[in-house]
Amino acid sequence: GEDLQSIPGVGEAIAKKATELITTGKLGYYENLKAEFPQGVTNLLAIPGIGPKTANKLSSELGISSADELEQAINDGRVAQLFRLGEKTADNILHQIQALRRKDQRIPIGEALPVVEEITVALRSIPGVKNLTAAGSLRRFRETLGDIDLMGTADNPKEVIDAFVALPHVGQVLAQGSTKASVIVSGGLQVDLRMVEHDSFGSLLQYFTGSKQHNISLRERGRKQGLKLSEYGITVIATDKLEKFSMAFITLRVIFSSLWFMAECTAAITISSSDRISCG
Protein backbone atom coordinates (compact mmCIF):
# COMPACT_ATOMS: atom_id res chain seq x y z
CA GLY A 1 0.00 0.00 0.00
CA GLU A 2 2.80 2.40 0.92
CA ASP A 3 4.58 1.75 -2.39
CA LEU A 4 1.41 2.62 -4.31
CA GLN A 5 1.11 5.92 -2.48
CA SER A 6 4.41 6.99 -3.98
CA ILE A 7 2.55 7.29 -7.29
CA PRO A 8 1.25 10.86 -7.85
CA GLY A 9 -2.51 11.04 -7.32
CA VAL A 10 -2.73 7.75 -5.36
CA GLY A 11 -3.70 8.28 -1.73
CA GLU A 12 -4.34 5.94 1.17
CA ALA A 13 -7.92 5.03 0.17
CA ILE A 14 -7.04 4.12 -3.44
CA ALA A 15 -3.95 2.25 -2.34
CA LYS A 16 -5.97 0.13 0.11
CA LYS A 17 -8.58 -0.72 -2.53
CA ALA A 18 -5.92 -1.58 -5.10
CA THR A 19 -4.13 -3.82 -2.60
CA GLU A 20 -7.40 -5.55 -1.68
CA LEU A 21 -8.25 -6.17 -5.33
CA ILE A 22 -4.79 -7.54 -6.13
CA THR A 23 -4.54 -9.80 -3.08
CA THR A 24 -8.13 -11.12 -2.93
CA GLY A 25 -9.35 -10.74 -6.50
CA LYS A 26 -12.40 -8.85 -5.20
CA LEU A 27 -13.27 -5.36 -4.00
CA GLY A 28 -15.64 -5.13 -1.04
CA TYR A 29 -16.75 -1.61 -1.95
CA TYR A 30 -17.75 -2.72 -5.46
CA GLU A 31 -19.50 -5.86 -4.19
CA ASN A 32 -21.53 -3.77 -1.74
CA LEU A 33 -22.57 -1.41 -4.51
CA LYS A 34 -23.72 -4.31 -6.68
CA ALA A 35 -25.76 -5.71 -3.81
CA GLU A 36 -27.79 -2.49 -3.68
CA PHE A 37 -29.20 -3.19 -7.15
CA PRO A 38 -31.82 -5.85 -7.90
CA GLN A 39 -30.50 -8.94 -9.66
CA GLY A 40 -30.23 -8.49 -13.44
CA VAL A 41 -30.16 -4.68 -13.49
CA THR A 42 -26.66 -4.64 -14.92
CA ASN A 43 -27.84 -6.91 -17.77
CA LEU A 44 -30.62 -4.46 -18.61
CA LEU A 45 -28.28 -1.47 -18.48
CA ALA A 46 -26.29 -3.06 -21.31
CA ILE A 47 -29.27 -2.46 -23.63
CA PRO A 48 -29.00 0.98 -25.37
CA GLY A 49 -31.77 3.33 -24.31
CA ILE A 50 -32.30 1.79 -20.87
CA GLY A 51 -31.07 3.92 -18.00
CA PRO A 52 -30.83 3.14 -14.27
CA LYS A 53 -34.40 4.22 -13.46
CA THR A 54 -35.98 2.17 -16.24
CA ALA A 55 -33.78 -0.84 -15.49
CA ASN A 56 -34.73 -0.69 -11.81
CA LYS A 57 -38.44 -0.37 -12.67
CA LEU A 58 -38.34 -3.34 -15.04
CA SER A 59 -36.49 -5.43 -12.48
CA SER A 60 -38.45 -4.51 -9.35
CA GLU A 61 -41.95 -4.38 -10.85
CA LEU A 62 -41.77 -7.13 -13.48
CA GLY A 63 -38.93 -9.28 -12.16
CA ILE A 64 -37.01 -8.95 -15.44
CA SER A 65 -33.30 -9.75 -15.36
CA SER A 66 -32.33 -10.48 -18.98
CA ALA A 67 -32.87 -9.29 -22.55
CA ASP A 68 -34.87 -12.44 -23.35
CA GLU A 69 -37.25 -11.86 -20.45
CA LEU A 70 -37.59 -8.20 -21.43
CA GLU A 71 -38.43 -9.10 -25.03
CA GLN A 72 -41.14 -11.49 -23.83
CA ALA A 73 -42.58 -8.84 -21.50
CA ILE A 74 -42.70 -6.32 -24.36
CA ASN A 75 -44.42 -8.77 -26.69
CA ASP A 76 -47.11 -9.65 -24.16
CA GLY A 77 -47.77 -5.97 -23.32
CA ARG A 78 -46.51 -5.87 -19.73
CA VAL A 79 -43.80 -3.27 -20.37
CA ALA A 80 -46.16 -0.84 -22.13
CA GLN A 81 -48.47 -0.94 -19.11
CA LEU A 82 -45.82 0.32 -16.72
CA PHE A 83 -46.20 3.90 -15.52
CA ARG A 84 -44.37 6.43 -17.72
CA LEU A 85 -43.23 3.90 -20.29
CA GLY A 86 -45.98 3.17 -22.82
CA GLU A 87 -46.03 1.44 -26.20
CA LYS A 88 -43.62 3.80 -27.99
CA THR A 89 -40.89 3.34 -25.39
CA ALA A 90 -41.50 -0.42 -25.34
CA ASP A 91 -41.17 -0.58 -29.13
CA ASN A 92 -37.93 1.41 -29.05
CA ILE A 93 -36.48 -0.95 -26.43
CA LEU A 94 -37.51 -3.95 -28.53
CA HIS A 95 -35.72 -2.49 -31.56
CA GLN A 96 -32.57 -2.02 -29.49
CA ILE A 97 -32.69 -5.64 -28.30
CA GLN A 98 -33.09 -6.86 -31.87
CA ALA A 99 -30.22 -4.62 -33.02
CA LEU A 100 -27.93 -6.06 -30.33
CA ARG A 101 -28.72 -9.57 -31.49
CA ARG A 102 -28.03 -8.70 -35.12
CA LYS A 103 -24.56 -7.45 -34.17
CA ASP A 104 -23.72 -10.96 -33.03
CA GLN A 105 -25.05 -12.51 -36.24
CA ARG A 106 -22.92 -12.61 -39.38
CA ILE A 107 -23.82 -13.86 -42.83
CA PRO A 108 -21.59 -15.09 -45.67
CA ILE A 109 -20.62 -12.40 -48.15
CA GLY A 110 -22.16 -14.50 -50.91
CA GLU A 111 -25.60 -13.97 -49.37
CA ALA A 112 -25.08 -10.23 -48.98
CA LEU A 113 -23.84 -9.44 -52.51
CA PRO A 114 -27.18 -10.08 -54.31
CA VAL A 115 -28.96 -7.84 -51.77
CA VAL A 116 -26.45 -5.04 -52.37
CA GLU A 117 -26.74 -5.43 -56.14
CA GLU A 118 -30.54 -5.10 -56.08
CA ILE A 119 -30.40 -2.03 -53.84
CA THR A 120 -27.69 -0.22 -55.78
CA VAL A 121 -29.32 -0.91 -59.16
CA ALA A 122 -32.58 0.57 -57.88
CA LEU A 123 -30.96 3.68 -56.38
CA ARG A 124 -28.64 4.37 -59.31
CA SER A 125 -31.71 4.79 -61.51
CA ILE A 126 -32.60 7.95 -59.58
CA PRO A 127 -31.58 11.10 -61.51
CA GLY A 128 -28.72 12.99 -59.86
CA VAL A 129 -27.05 10.00 -58.21
CA LYS A 130 -23.34 10.32 -59.04
CA ASN A 131 -21.68 7.79 -56.75
CA LEU A 132 -22.97 4.74 -54.91
CA THR A 133 -20.84 1.92 -53.54
CA ALA A 134 -20.34 -0.41 -50.61
CA ALA A 135 -18.04 0.47 -47.71
CA GLY A 136 -17.08 -1.30 -44.51
CA SER A 137 -16.40 -5.01 -44.32
CA LEU A 138 -18.17 -5.66 -47.63
CA ARG A 139 -15.73 -3.43 -49.53
CA ARG A 140 -12.88 -5.16 -47.73
CA PHE A 141 -14.40 -8.44 -48.92
CA ARG A 142 -14.53 -10.06 -45.52
CA GLU A 143 -15.88 -13.60 -45.61
CA THR A 144 -18.77 -12.77 -43.27
CA LEU A 145 -20.67 -9.54 -42.58
CA GLY A 146 -22.56 -8.18 -39.59
CA ASP A 147 -24.26 -5.48 -41.65
CA ILE A 148 -23.95 -3.61 -44.94
CA ASP A 149 -22.66 -0.04 -45.31
CA LEU A 150 -23.46 1.91 -48.48
CA MET A 151 -22.20 5.38 -49.37
CA GLY A 152 -22.98 7.73 -52.19
CA THR A 153 -23.48 11.27 -53.46
CA ALA A 154 -26.45 12.82 -55.20
CA ASP A 155 -27.80 16.21 -56.19
CA ASN A 156 -30.80 15.53 -53.93
CA PRO A 157 -29.72 13.24 -51.08
CA LYS A 158 -33.14 13.26 -49.40
CA GLU A 159 -34.77 11.89 -52.54
CA VAL A 160 -32.35 8.95 -52.50
CA ILE A 161 -32.95 8.30 -48.79
CA ASP A 162 -36.72 8.37 -49.29
CA ALA A 163 -36.42 5.89 -52.17
CA PHE A 164 -34.09 3.68 -50.11
CA VAL A 165 -36.49 3.23 -47.17
CA ALA A 166 -39.36 2.56 -49.61
CA LEU A 167 -37.63 -0.31 -51.46
CA PRO A 168 -39.59 -3.58 -51.52
CA HIS A 169 -36.66 -5.36 -49.79
CA VAL A 170 -37.11 -3.18 -46.68
CA GLY A 171 -39.04 -4.77 -43.87
CA GLN A 172 -38.28 -2.24 -41.13
CA VAL A 173 -36.90 1.30 -40.96
CA LEU A 174 -34.66 1.73 -37.92
CA ALA A 175 -33.70 5.37 -38.52
CA GLN A 176 -34.19 7.95 -41.25
CA GLY A 177 -32.82 11.44 -41.79
CA SER A 178 -32.16 13.69 -44.75
CA THR A 179 -28.74 12.19 -45.55
CA LYS A 180 -28.66 8.75 -43.91
CA ALA A 181 -30.92 5.86 -42.99
CA SER A 182 -30.77 2.37 -41.50
CA VAL A 183 -33.14 -0.41 -42.47
CA ILE A 184 -33.68 -4.13 -42.03
CA VAL A 185 -34.15 -6.02 -45.27
CA SER A 186 -35.60 -9.46 -45.88
CA GLY A 187 -33.51 -12.06 -44.09
CA GLY A 188 -32.89 -9.76 -41.11
CA LEU A 189 -29.79 -8.03 -42.50
CA GLN A 190 -29.21 -4.39 -41.52
CA VAL A 191 -28.29 -1.97 -44.32
CA ASP A 192 -27.04 1.57 -43.63
CA LEU A 193 -26.98 4.22 -46.35
CA ARG A 194 -25.07 7.50 -46.00
CA MET A 195 -25.20 10.25 -48.62
CA VAL A 196 -22.35 12.80 -48.48
CA GLU A 197 -21.05 15.88 -50.29
CA HIS A 198 -19.52 15.29 -53.73
CA ASP A 199 -16.15 16.75 -52.79
CA SER A 200 -15.84 14.59 -49.66
CA PHE A 201 -16.91 11.28 -51.14
CA GLY A 202 -13.46 9.77 -51.64
CA SER A 203 -12.21 10.72 -48.18
CA LEU A 204 -15.33 9.43 -46.48
CA LEU A 205 -15.28 6.20 -48.46
CA GLN A 206 -11.70 5.53 -47.41
CA TYR A 207 -12.56 6.24 -43.78
CA PHE A 208 -15.69 4.10 -43.66
CA THR A 209 -14.05 1.24 -45.53
CA GLY A 210 -11.92 0.62 -42.45
CA SER A 211 -11.03 -1.51 -40.73
CA LYS A 212 -10.79 0.22 -37.35
CA GLN A 213 -7.19 -0.90 -36.87
CA HIS A 214 -6.36 0.19 -40.41
CA ASN A 215 -7.64 3.71 -39.71
CA ILE A 216 -5.75 3.87 -36.42
CA SER A 217 -2.54 2.94 -38.22
CA LEU A 218 -3.13 5.57 -40.91
CA ARG A 219 -3.82 8.31 -38.36
CA GLU A 220 -0.72 7.41 -36.37
CA ARG A 221 1.46 7.47 -39.50
CA GLY A 222 0.00 10.84 -40.46
CA ARG A 223 0.50 12.31 -36.99
CA LYS A 224 4.21 11.48 -37.13
CA GLN A 225 4.45 13.50 -40.35
CA GLY A 226 2.44 16.50 -39.15
CA LEU A 227 -0.74 15.41 -40.90
CA LYS A 228 -4.21 14.72 -39.55
CA LEU A 229 -6.33 12.13 -41.34
CA SER A 230 -10.10 12.20 -40.93
CA GLU A 231 -13.22 11.28 -42.85
CA TYR A 232 -13.05 14.74 -44.44
CA GLY A 233 -9.54 14.46 -45.91
CA ILE A 234 -5.95 15.18 -44.87
CA THR A 235 -5.17 18.31 -42.84
CA VAL A 236 -1.68 19.81 -42.58
CA ILE A 237 -1.53 20.48 -38.84
CA ALA A 238 0.90 23.41 -39.11
CA THR A 239 -1.31 25.36 -41.52
CA ASP A 240 -4.69 23.78 -40.72
CA LYS A 241 -5.21 23.37 -44.47
CA LEU A 242 -7.62 20.58 -45.41
CA GLU A 243 -7.21 18.60 -48.62
CA LYS A 244 -10.40 16.83 -49.70
CA PHE A 245 -10.66 13.89 -52.08
CA SER A 246 -13.76 13.65 -54.22
CA MET A 247 -12.64 10.86 -56.57
CA ALA A 248 -12.97 7.47 -54.93
CA PHE A 249 -10.83 5.63 -57.48
CA ILE A 250 -7.72 7.66 -56.63
CA THR A 251 -8.33 8.17 -52.93
CA LEU A 252 -6.54 5.13 -51.54
CA ARG A 253 -3.42 5.65 -53.62
CA VAL A 254 -3.31 9.39 -52.90
CA ILE A 255 -3.81 8.96 -49.16
CA PHE A 256 -1.33 6.12 -48.88
CA SER A 257 1.21 8.11 -50.91
CA SER A 258 0.65 11.18 -48.75
CA LEU A 259 1.29 9.22 -45.58
CA TRP A 260 4.07 7.00 -47.03
CA PHE A 261 1.97 4.21 -45.59
CA MET A 262 3.35 0.70 -45.48
CA ALA A 263 1.37 -2.13 -43.87
CA GLU A 264 1.09 -1.63 -40.13
CA CYS A 265 -1.90 -3.91 -39.63
CA THR A 266 -1.84 -7.47 -38.46
CA ALA A 267 -2.81 -8.52 -41.98
CA ALA A 268 -1.16 -7.37 -45.20
CA ILE A 269 -2.77 -4.54 -47.14
CA THR A 270 -3.32 -5.15 -50.81
CA ILE A 271 -4.53 -2.68 -53.40
CA SER A 272 -5.91 -4.16 -56.57
CA SER A 273 -6.67 -2.45 -59.84
CA SER A 274 -10.15 -1.73 -58.47
CA ASP A 275 -8.65 -0.15 -55.31
CA ARG A 276 -10.06 -2.87 -53.08
CA ILE A 277 -8.16 -3.15 -49.82
CA SER A 278 -7.80 -5.88 -47.27
CA CYS A 279 -6.59 -5.04 -43.80
CA GLY A 280 -7.46 -6.97 -40.67
Automatic annotation (TrEMBL):
Residues 2-21, 42-61, 77-96 form the Helix-hairpin-helix DNA-binding motif class domain. The keyword Cytoplasm does not apply. One of its GO terms (molecular function) is DNA-directed DNA polymerase activity. Residues 1-263 form the DNA-directed DNA polymerase X domain. Keywords: DNA-directed DNA polymerase, Methylation, Nucleotidyltransferase, Sodium, Transferase, Ubl conjugation. It catalyses: a 5'-end 2'-deoxyribose-2'-deoxyribonucleotide-DNA = (2E,4S)-4-hydroxypenten-2-al-5-phosphate + a 5'-end 5'-phospho-2'-deoxyribonucleoside-DNA + H(+); 2'-deoxyribonucleotide-(2'-deoxyribose 5'-phosphate)-2'-deoxyribonucleotide-DNA = a 3'-end 2'-deoxyribonucleotide-(2,3-dehydro-2,3-deoxyribose 5'-phosphate)-DNA + a 5'-end 5'-phospho-2'-deoxyribonucleoside-DNA + H(+); DNA(n) + a 2'-deoxyribonucleoside 5'-triphosphate = DNA(n+1) + diphosphate. One of its GO terms (biological process) is double-strand break repair via nonhomologous end joining. Its EC number is 2.7.7.7, 4.2.99.18. GO terms for cellular component: cytoplasm; nucleus. InterPro entries: DNA-dir_DNA_pol_X (IPR002054), DNA_pol_lamdba_lyase_dom_sf (IPR027421), DNA_Pol_thumb_sf (IPR037160), DNA_pol_X (IPR022312), DNA_pol_X_beta-like (IPR002008), Hlx-hairpin-Hlx_DNA-bd_motif (IPR003583), NT_sf (IPR043519), PolB_thumb (IPR029398). It is found in: Cytoplasm. Repair polymerase that plays a key role in base-excision repair. During this process, the damaged base is excised by specific DNA glycosylases, the DNA backbone is nicked at the abasic site by an apurinic/apyrimidic (AP) endonuclease, and POLB removes 5'-deoxyribose-phosphate from the preincised AP site acting as a 5'-deoxyribose-phosphate lyase (5'-dRP lyase); through its DNA polymerase activity, it adds one nucleotide to the 3' end of the arising single-nucleotide gap. This is DNA polymerase beta. It comes from marine sediment metagenome.
